[in-house]
Amino acid sequence: HNMELTPAIREYAEQKLGGIISRLDKDKNSTLEIELGITTKHHKHGDMYKAKATATIGSRRVHVESITSEMYKSIDELKDKLDDELAHSGDKKRSIMRSIARRFKSLIKRN
Description:
Layout: H1 7-25, E1 30-39, E2 48-57, E3 60-68, H2 71-110
Helix pairs in contact: 1-2
């Protein structure tokens, strides 16, 4: 199904995702693609609204999707999922770097 992107929906999405967008803007090698639409996968429940986002930060790619009975709810859920994924991937990268640093430090102490 095609869906008209109203100014109200656009403004709501920009407001909700603004913090994520400004964080990604700090990294020149990052992009954020957002797709909003109606899906017929759950036709027994009436129209279902889908919000998808793909964030690319350097060589890392994060993809999240939300499908609910309301567009605004889908955008809210998408924002929460994207926040969680970006935070998790950043934490993972930090913990790997700390692990490498600890190993390096123990090697230096031995010599």
